[in-house]
């Protein structure tokens, strides 16, 4: 396995994409680094003024990166130089690196001059973040283990902040989220290959000095990818077995088999009950603290609530709750993961034919999450414990949180 360290930054409201990019550029200048591989992805809003049209009018040389994709709402304009193995790749195969001045021009116009929907920059293949100068500098290959077995892309640019990317780089993302911009910044350090022995897992002095000059480091974790195709193939066999384990617990309508929900949930219409303040976290804690979970603030924000626990074999179980828009019902997806694999599953609060669609009282919230807890009880042994045993004891160096 190849090991990497992911470094996540804490960004304040005043940290605009331009301000962050300027700090990255200054760090490059101070460390005498010329960024030669800047990957980027930009998508346009499908409503209102086109940020891409405005950008290309100001900087027409970027037009070679433009293409359009069909969506459920029509067509979406994009600019990117991502290669073919990436989701969102340039359909014309234009993969030339973006220049730093062009990057500054793009982020400097967000969000007013260029009201772009999503933006991702990857300052890739940075020597200062690669410990072995002789290591391969080829583009990372997609590895299916950390996602859907039917989906073999490297990552979707819209969710960069939630993906592991095996390459020494700095990544900046900015997109619209509810009522404002959501900005995210992280860095990836290439630690080494386990075939050469366990490398030091902590940042060395040079790495920490360079990365700290860019911003306030919030969180660090180690992740892994296969060293070669043979290792990937061996993991893939277990992945298929694990997917079959998950699928065996659901019927053709995606209903969880064998669950007896303790609370009958009735659809509520607007006006059925007066709305009151709702606490998703309180209800989750009530039902899941006794099941060994802890509330995880690092992965909880903006209507998303995450709880986690470590299994006996040192794998991670993560449950993510989301409260829908306009107080719609609570949904929950779960997952169990190790260093090279991940299996997702759903924990519905009701059978398909009785799903509620509105929550107005705390008791409604408690009942929905109580039903989700009952669903968790059903899958704990056949999914979590069985998959935990399928992969055996995980490495002690692995950090999930």
Report on the architecture of this protein.
This protein has 401 residues and is α+β, with helices and mostly antiparallel strands. The protein has two domains: 2-227, no CATH class; 237-391, no CATH class. The chain contains seven helices and 13 strands. A hairpin with a 6-residue loop joins β11 (316-323) and β12 (330-337). It is globular, with a radius of gyration of 23 Å. The two termini are 20 Å apart. Residues 144-155 have low confidence and may be disordered.
Instruction: Tally the helices.
Output: 7
Number of spatially distinct domains: 2
Question: Roughly how many Å is the radius of gyration?
Answer: 23 Å
Shape field: globular
Biggest sheet strand line-up: 3-4-2-5-6-7-1-8
Write the H/E string, N to C. Answer: EHEHEEHEEEHEHHEEEEEH
Q: Which stretches are low in confidence, meaning pLDDT under 50 for 5 or more residues running? A: 144-155
Which structural class should the secondary elements be placed in? alpha+beta
Could you tell me the number of beta strands?
Answer: 13
Binned, the helix content reads 10-25%
Biggest sheet features: 8 strands, antiparallel
How much strand content do the residues show? 15-25%
Q: Report the end-to-end length measured between terminal Cα atoms.
A: 20 Å
In round numbers, the mean pLDDT is: 85
Task: Label this structure with key terms.
2 domains, about 400 residues, 5-stranded antiparallel sheet
Short characterization:
The protein is α+β, with helices and mostly antiparallel strands and 401 residues long. It has helices at residues 17-30, 51-58, 100-108, 205-212, 229-247, 280-288, 362-391; strands at 2-10, 38-43, 66-71, 74-80, 118-123, 169-177, 180-193, 216-225, 294-295, 304-310, 316-323, 330-337, 342-346.
């Amino acid at each position: 396995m190849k090991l990497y360290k992911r470094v996540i930054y804490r960004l304040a409201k005043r940290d605009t994409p331009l301000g962050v990019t300027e700090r990255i550029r200054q760090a490059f200048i101070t460390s005498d680094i010329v960024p030669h591989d800047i990957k980027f992805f930009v998508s346009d809003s499908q409503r209102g003024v086109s940020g891409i049209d405005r950008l290309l009018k100001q900087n027409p040389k970027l037009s070679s990166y433009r293409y359009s994709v069909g969506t459920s709402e029509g067509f979406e304009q994009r600019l990117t130089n991502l290669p073919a193995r990436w989701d969102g790749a340039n359909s014309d195969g234009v993969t030339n690196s973006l220049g730093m001045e062009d990057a500054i021009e793009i982020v400097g116009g967000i969000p007013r001059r260029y009201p772009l929907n999503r933006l991702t920059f990857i300052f890739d293949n940075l020597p200062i973040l690669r410990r072995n100068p002789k290591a391969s500098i080829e583009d990372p290959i997609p590895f299916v283990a950390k996602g859907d077995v039917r989906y073999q892309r490297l990552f979707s640019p819209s969710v960069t902040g939630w993906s592991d990317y095996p390459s020494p780089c700095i990544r900046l993302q900015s997109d619209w989220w509810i009522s404002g911009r959501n900005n995210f910044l992280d860095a990836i350090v290439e630690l080494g290959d386990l075939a050469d022995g366990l490398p030091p897992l902590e940042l060395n002095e040079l790495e920490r000095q360079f990365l700290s000059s860019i911003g306030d480091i919030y969180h660090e974790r180690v992740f892994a990818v296969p060293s070669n195709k043979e290792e990937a193939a061996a993991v893939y066999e277990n992945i298929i077995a694990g997917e079959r384990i998950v699928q065996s617990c659901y019927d053709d309508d995606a209903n969880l088999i064998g669950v007896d929900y303790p609370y009958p949930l009735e659809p509520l219409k607007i006006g059925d009950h007066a709305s009151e303040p709702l606490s998703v976290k309180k209800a989750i804690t009530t039902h899941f603290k006794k099941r060994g979970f802890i509330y995880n603030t690092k992965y909880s924000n903006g209507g998303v609530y995450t709880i986690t626990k470590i299994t006996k074999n040192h794998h991670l179980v993560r449950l993510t709750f989301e409260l829908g828009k306009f107080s719609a019902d609570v949904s929950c997806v779960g997952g169990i993961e190790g260093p090279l694999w991940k299996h997702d599953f759903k924990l519905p609060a009701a059978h398909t034919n009785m799903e509620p669609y509105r929550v107005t009282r705390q008791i409604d919230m408690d009942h929905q999450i109580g039903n989700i807890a009952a669903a968790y009880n059903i899958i704990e042994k056949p999914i979590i414990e069985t998959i935990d045993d399928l992969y055996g004891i995980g490495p002690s160096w692995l950090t999930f949180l």
